[in-house]
Predict the structure.
Amino acid sequence: MEKPVCAECSTPIEPGDEHLIIKASKKGKTDTFLCAQCLAKARTALEEQTYNPNMLMAVMGGLAGAVVGGLIWYFFVILTGWQIGFIAMLMGLLVGLGVVRGAGRKTGRPLQWISVLLTVVAILFSEYLIFNHFFHEVGGVGNLTIAQFFEVYGAYFGEGAGFLDILFFGIALWQAYATPGRKALKGTVVPAAAPQVNK
Ligand SMILES: [Zn+2]
């Protein structure tokens, strides 16, 4: 039988050496292997992913994602007239990706909470812009105050129209939390065989 070859460095993997197998997800595809050296590198890279993230840029990246998500959401609602929050789900993902990028492709718990916090702010701010738009449309003068916004917004949820939105926001927050989450090693590690005493 031919020896499996490392997917990274093409070194044949000796039986008994430590290696990683990533089982093929589809039939007809072959499994992927990593040799001991490349496996060690992958482990180091995974450990470094949470090390020393750039927090300021993480916040900036998350805000950039929030602005993009907010604009898409705002114009979608204004153009279609549908006040549904399903685009909020996109918000969680965009903010999460922005945080990861900004942090220098880093992940980890602090970034996850930054992402969640920014997503909450982004959703509320987008909703404010949307409600303010409709406030003007019905002849409202000036801008909604924060207190007025929460009054209208609370009534919107109270009427049950916002029921689905709660679900969408839940998914958005989950996306925001999961996206900067620490990535784990995929596949199964086959440990090195114990050295044989008798040859
Ligand atoms: Zn290798």
Observations:
- Residues 6, 8-9, 11, 34-35, 37-38 surround zinc ion (CB under 6 Å).
- The longest helix spans residues 109-137.
- The chain has two domains: 1-48, 55-178.
- The chain has a mean pLDDT of 90.
